[in-house]
Amino acid sequence: MNLPTNNREQLIKTTCPRDCYDGCGIVVHKRNGDIVKVKGNRDHPSTRGPLCAKCAVSYNGAWLDENARLLYPLKRSGTKGSGKFERISWDDALAEIASKFDEIAREHSTDRIYHTHYTGTCSVIAGQFPKRFFDHIGATEVDPDTICNAAGHTALAYVFGDSVSGFDPRTSKDSKCILIWGANPAHCGPHVYQHWLHEHGAKVIVVDPVRTKTAASADLHLQVRPGADAALAFSMLHIMTSESLVDENYIKRHVQGYEEILPTIQKCTPDWGQSKTGIPIKLIEEAARSYASGPSLLWLGQGLQRQPKGGNIFRACAMLPAFTGNIGKPGAGFYYLNDTIAIGERRGAPSVYKKPEPSDGPSPVSQMDIPALLQDPTAIQSYVVWNCNPLASNPNQASMKKGLAREDLFTVVIDCFMTDTADYADIVLPAASFLEFDDVCSSYFHLMIGAQVQCRMPMGESLPNQDIFRKLSTAMELQDAALYEDDRSIIEQTLRESGVQETWQELVERGWTYITDEPLILWSVGRFATPSGKIEIASERAEADGLPRLPQATTDPEQKNGKFRLISPAADWLMNSSFGNDRNVLRMMGPATVTCHPQTASDLGISDGDQVRLSNELGELQLTARLSDITTPGALLVYKSRWLKMEENPANVNMLCIARKTDMGESTSVHATEVTVSRID
Questions:
Q1: Whole-model pTM above 0.90?
Q2: What are the structural domains of the chain?
Q3: What is the pLDDT of residue 29?
């Protein structure tokens, strides 16, 4: 995009690419060629006015601050972790990376080059184009979903054949009930919480072990005991089946396994449910009846599946829409994450996802394996980190540090900021911010596409991710044309294949567009992408993979011997680890705390404001105690993703979180972390 150089006032519409349900519209205010303010777009259907507080602060803070941004390529000049670097040229940086990759290919294999990424940017090209390079050279991808949502995806794929075609939020106008299970949009989708959730008058039910802001504003909050979610689903289903609230006609036509699972459901009485979940019978009954009467929407949150049996929990919850027929009609449906682009057009993946030749490389590995693999020179010889800060976000933090400190591990970090992980890099490459290049953003809640429009030239010598990997492909003399495809052609093809009617220029002028004019009723055909074409409550594929054929009415064991369950959800002022370096954000967050129930505190002799030590086999963490009944007595709450380097003691809650995998999907089960607590005198 050619930016005007005159002195007039400018307003540029763009889109927030953060890992958030909202996909907010932004208006960038410029004067004399400089950005003076980043605000929300009042005409955008998600934002409808101001940005959320975290974006409003950081986009007008660290993201515009040359002193906070990475401006030039850097090469390590001190020990790993010291943060000592010297400036080098792009040519020298890329030549060193190319030389090292060639050496690994020559002496070992390129599958020892690992790349890890997440959603530091959700824009399509910057978030996906680098995969073309790594697929071409045969590098090993660290599966990003395993740090966040893989168990849920795997489980829903067994049941429905698809985990990324949820409900269209616009259909909520026809809903009588919205059941949110294990999500807190007040923190993770502020505008979804502020506008969408309550705007049509549906009864809102929230299931969460924490009385979150979302739960507190709901019509009904079921404060489930951590790890007892499957038991709650089965108990609700018992009420539905015993009171003839299930849709037998829908079950006969579209569901496989109802008769098989029914004996288990019949055993899961409300009395049993209360004993397992800690929820009063009358509340379980109210929730079951409200949801079954429908039409109802079910929102399965990512926090729900971050438990040892997170996949089983999802399979259990999936029975609710299946047995009540709350699928494929206005105001009904289930949602985990929407793939807006794939929903828009099923003929094939957009060009940005296209794998160049050769594309048959090693299988991805779980993020849960990385702490150990990083310490193994025979497994990983180069670690490339882009769009994420794994030292802050991954479990087994001490092991991560030990692995990153290996002198023989060639680490490259690509980022806008000097993250915790970047301190351990050999080469650091400055990435351009979303305000500095054109791209396309797709929401994973609203079925809309947004234009990410260049508002200024990149700071310093920073470059968009895609340009970095084009230059690296040149340095390595790679020939595949897909490695050099220009941004505009990718954008235009992405729009075409998403079913969007607007041209790029039209999208730029408006800022956003829905992929369809009218709300989509997903699953209305009643044909599912499973082997049987039906909803498979009884799954032969799951059985073949060594998993139970049916969902199980199980609960996690309660903590004993003075141990407590540690829950680490998303913080209000962070988006994963995004914004964790902004000084104003840090001021608003205050010091790191652990929230515990007053009964727990009384038993331990802890008062509000005391310094306490949380400990387990991985280490210990010192925090300030905050007393509140928003948690259950057996649970502790510490918000995730604070930057280590910004803490007085350089660690966050992942110092205590074990890299233990879920029952399926090789995902994280961080919400089952166990700790002991003691007051520091």
A1: yes
A2: 10-64 (3.30.200.210), 74-143+345-446+456-514 (3.40.50.740), 167-335+525-544 (3.40.228.10), 564-679 (2.40.40.20)
A3: 97
